[in-house]
Design a protein that fits this description.
signal, 42% strand, alpha+beta, single chain, elongated, Bactericidal permeability-increasing protein, domain 1
């Protein structure tokens, strides 16, 4: 356990050397796993359904917001790639990679949404576009190989497109747009992380396979 903790702290050659670990910038294995996972992205995107049902607050400390329910959703992503260099560390019993990866674009389309603000209700469509950056830390040890840390670091500048009809739709749509923008990181995290974890599972499988 002590050695695994040290792997996460390996940020420079001096620390790694004193800990008995060897750390270098090495992108080969991560690039291989990313490349192998690209097929999983295209297959998953064509079949997934994304339920989305939650209250989106306008102000964090007030229970004042829009109740949003979205169904008949699908998602698409383009060009999953490494973002920056990978820090690869290893000793006689452990290997790890730490770094970032990103998507050029992630798009969620919901063909049916219902949004309610106070007693005003509107139906329509919702499209969410963003460019996420994730940090990851993956370890191969004596007992298991696992993705031990995955964090959404950045969503770029999200774009929320809402299509509704009538004055009620216009009004609720404007309020919903503000609420989604105000909670953009949480919305992007919930939409992506909760529904697309299969991509990360596939990435881990290919990375661990190269470590055997």
């Amino acid at each position: 356990m002590f050695r695994v903790v040290l792997l996460a702290l390996c940020l420079n050659s001096v620390l790694c050397s004193s800990a008995g670990l060897d750390c270098v910038h090495d992108d080969k294995i991560v690039d291989f796993a990313l490349d192998q996972t690209k097929n999983q992205i295209s297959e998953t995107a064509s079949h997934v359904s994304l339920p989305f049902d939650q209250r989106v607050n306008l102000i964090n400390f007030l229970n004042f917001g829009v109740q949003l329910s979205a169904t008949d959703g699908k998602w698409a992503a383009s060009r999953w790639s490494r973002f920056g260099n990978t820090t690869h560390c290893e000793d006689s019993i452990h290997q790890s990679d730490e770094g970032y990866f990103t998507f050029d674009d992630v798009v969620f389309d919901y063909d049916k949404i219902n949004a309610t603000f106070w007693s005003i209700e509107a139906n329509g469509k919702l499209t969410i576009k963003f460019k996420p950056v994730f940090s990851y830390y993956i370890v191969n040890g004596t007992e298991e190989c696992a993705l031990v840390s995955l964090k959404l670091e950045n969503v770029g500048t999200p774009d929320f497109q809402i299509s509704t009809d009538g004055w009620k739709g216009w009004f609720v749509g404007r309020i919903l747009h503000y609420a989604l923008w105000y909670n953009q990181v949480g919305v992007a995290h919930d939409a992506f992380a909760e529904n697309c974890h299969g991509i990360f599972t596939e990435f881990t499988k290919h990375w661990c396979g190269k470590m055997k």
